[in-house]
Amino acid sequence: MIAKSKVSKSLSFNERCYVLLRKVPKGKVTTYKALANELGTAAYRAVGNAMNKNPHAPKTPCHRVINADGRLGGFASGLENKKKLLKAEGVKIENEKIDLDKYGYFF
DNA sequence: CCGTTGACTCTTT
DNA sequence: AAAAGAGCCAACG
């Protein structure tokens, strides 16, 4: 049968966030705002919710998503772990903040 | 179906 | 600069 099953035609809001997030290169970070903006919406919160559910972990680099202010925001597995992962990828965190001017990745 | 909550962000006080 | 309010969307009870 030609069951399309998972057609990439109607991805859920969450799945779209993951796909977009997967495009972020290693060593860079993005913001909830940038993702929502690419999705054509202003639901910054819905994006954060999607990350918290994150059914594709660790395939989806949800740790590369931070606040628009450059703050880390939050992390389901522990914010400390998020900092460590970013640091391991080459992202330097100064004063609990990330320099979006250098590490911020936009679409 | 309605109200509340949440890994957010912007504007106003 | 810090705090409070408003706005947006999805998931849960």
Brief summary:
The chain is mostly helical.
3D architecture notes:
The longest helix is centred in the first third of the chain and has 10 residues, at 13-22. Strand 3 and strand 4 form a beta hairpin. The chain is mainly alpha-helical. Helices cover 39% and strands 7% of the residues. The protein has one domain: Winged helix-like DNA-binding domain superfamily/Winged helix DNA-binding domain (Arc Repressor Mutant, subunit A), CATH 1.10.10.10. It has helices at residues 13-22, 32-39, 44-53, 79-88, 100-103; strands spanning 30-31, 65-66, 93-94, 97-98. The model is unreliable at 2-8 (pLDDT under 50). Helix 1 (13-22) packs across helix 2 and helix 1 (13-22) crosses helix 3 (44-53). The termini are far apart. It has 5 helices and 4 strands, in the order H-E-H-H-E-H-E-E-H. It binds a DNA duplex (13 and 13 nucleotides) through helix 2, helix 3 and strand 2.
Key traits:
39% helix, disordered N terminus, Arc Repressor Mutant, subunit A, DNA-binding, single chain, 107 residues, 5 helices, mainly alpha, globular, two-stranded parallel ribbon, two-stranded antiparallel ribbon
